[in-house]
Hints:
Number of strands: 26
Largest sheet: 5 strands, mixed
Radius of gyration: 18 Å
Low-confidence stretches: 1-30
Strand order of the largest sheet: 1-23-22-21-20
Mean pLDDT: 89
Number of helices: 1
Amino acid sequence: MPLPVVPEVPLAGRVLRWLVASTLVACVAGCHVAPGVPPARIELSAQPNGIAVRPGDGGLFITDDRSNAILWSQDRTTYAPYAHVPVVTGQPNGLSQLVFAQPDTLLVARFGFGETGALFVVSSRGDAQSLTGLATDRRRLGLAPIGPGRVLSSWFIKHDGQPITGGVSLVSYDAATHAATERDLIAGLTKPVGLAVLGDALLVSDQNRNAILRYDLRALLAAQAPVPAQSGTMVAQVESPDLLAIDSAGTLYTKCHAHAVCRVAPDGAVTSLADDFQDARGVAVDDARHTLYVVDRAKSTSTTASAIRVIPLAR
């Protein structure tokens, strides 16, 4: 198919007219392939999906669908349970993105399969409490905090025989009582997965449309009604983009094609960083350590374990 709060950076003077790349075949047509050795592997006894880097010490946190839990590692190699999310009887486990809302507080999305979609607040003690008042038929995927008690949530709704419809909403919540309200900001997306925020720019990956779109976050928050999906600016066309991560320079990272991970530069150039993934899922940037972490989830028939792939970034 998460992330420290990105400090607000003014976008005035920044060139944000992203170039449109053509659709991927084996990679995006015309995209570049980064030279170098394959990313390092940290094998996991887990079914990982989302990943987040803790601000400060760089501790890694992942969601594990095998145990329906959040695992963490201080040394980025050995993982231990951090918090367990309540299991839904008779339903597969499905934890999506997790992000740091505060340095000691995580938010995690439960996909929910159209019945039990939810967001959970996870304290430093490992307690996972669901936010109340949210629609449970929304299949929840990406998250992007935008300040205390506020997080953007991507989701889609799928009913038998009907087209998939998705959107991005603002969830406002009380960290003490866990009461929440939700206001839709973007309507008419198909399957929005990844979200990333830098300053006033909101980036959204719409997986079914093979597109990454940019929206003006201030305009979305000020609007009286949800804006249509087509009001966004095309960033790039990327085959099957998934969860997003963004670095302090505005470069995006996401799954692309069936087995690759791509970098999308601020000028729209798309580069494949590696194309030997089993199933790339969550991505997280550690700006302080110039490192990209990517979840590589093993297929059910695979003899190779799931792993976290470690990709050094240019300084």
